[in-house]
Specification:
alpha/beta; four-stranded parallel β-sheet
Amino acid sequence: MKKIAVLTSGGDAPGMNAAIRAVVRMALYHGIEVMGVERGYSGLINGELFKMDRSSVSDIIQRGGTILRTARCEEFKTEEGRQKAANILKAYGIDALVVCGGDGSFMGAKLVSKLGVKTVGLPGTIDNDLAYTDYTIGFDTALNTVLDAINKLRDTSTSHERVSVVEIMGRNCGDLALYAGIAGGAESIIVPEKDFCKEDLCRTILEGKASGKNHNLVLVAEGVGGAGELAKYIENVTGIETRATILGHIQRGGSPTAADRVLASRLGARAVELLMEGKTARVVGIRENKIIDMDIDEALAMERTFDNDLFDVALAINK
């Protein structure tokens, strides 16, 4: 293994820079040259590569986003586009590629590996929706960003004695809403994995008001959506002033937490070790605080399970 490349793909996530830093410095430590690929698979196809050294990743571990930037790439979805990417890597003398992103990025790494390119994937997404790993890079930071926002919303919700409906990102995974709901003491948590009844929600809000509760915080996962419509419904049924807030892409930004920086560093270093061991088409993750790796096909095929026990805890302690 003489030269590797690293790219970030899909949505940005806090901690991606820490992962890039770990990949670069671990590779250099072992005498392996590193090339950075700008703008994900799009930049790979267009030959946007540059040589990286230790100074290339200095002073980035605390920064959100990704210094390599990221972009969607329709061309890479074609066989011709992927072959072009493989040819670019070959032209630069690159032996392997490290990809940091979500399931779509992993699918790209899987397909390019079939063209003779050694690949390893790092789970970089705030959604925490990759079944093979307990946590993804960026999830903890996004969680704390959401928590800070709902803490502030609770202040004004309490002052005005109103209901606050907050829409949380996460695509079709309810983890971000669930964890934020427990940490923030939300009275109601609505996620794609669980059915909910609007009438029951309104009844709970009215019962809370009758018992002296002067505010309500309702978290709605992005996969359910409709925070604005739900807020209008609650206000019409209960007569309580209700406001909707969609946090949006603020959840993706910000300096990564210590947990995300350490996780990204551990995963990035392990990715380089796997390539040095001659392994390919692998993904790296964490389970029970131990770094693991597995076949990318197996990882993508795994069915994600929702933590029903944690949801039950939320129901018991947050009302």
